[in-house]
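Justification of resources, computational component.

The compute hours requested in this renewal are based largely on the per-chain cost of generating structure records like the one below. Each record pairs the submitted sequence with a full structure-token output. That output is archived, and it is also reused by downstream analysis tasks.
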Amino acid sequence: MKSNGFGKLVAFLNQLEQEQINYTLAHHRDETIMVNVAVAGQRWEVEFFEDGSVEVERFVSSGEIDGEEVLSELFAMYSSESHSAEFTQNTNLASTT
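The structure output for this chain reads:
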């Protein structure tokens, strides 16, 4: 990582620590380091690129709280089995056109 991007990342981490804001680091793309920040009602994904650029994506809660019954939706929509079924369905649709 070039010093410009690395410098921004380190300055941001230092500020988070100074303000006592918890974070985790992740590495999902070759050229970035992601800082995940979770605060009340929000989750922030801040990606620092090798070239010094920064991307920020915020997820803001509506404040609505659900019960555990909605957990089944999570697995129904995002389990590996439902993804492979969805892929198969999309592949079948593509091959018929």
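The helical segments are 3-18, 71-78, 80-96. The longest helix spans residues 80-96.
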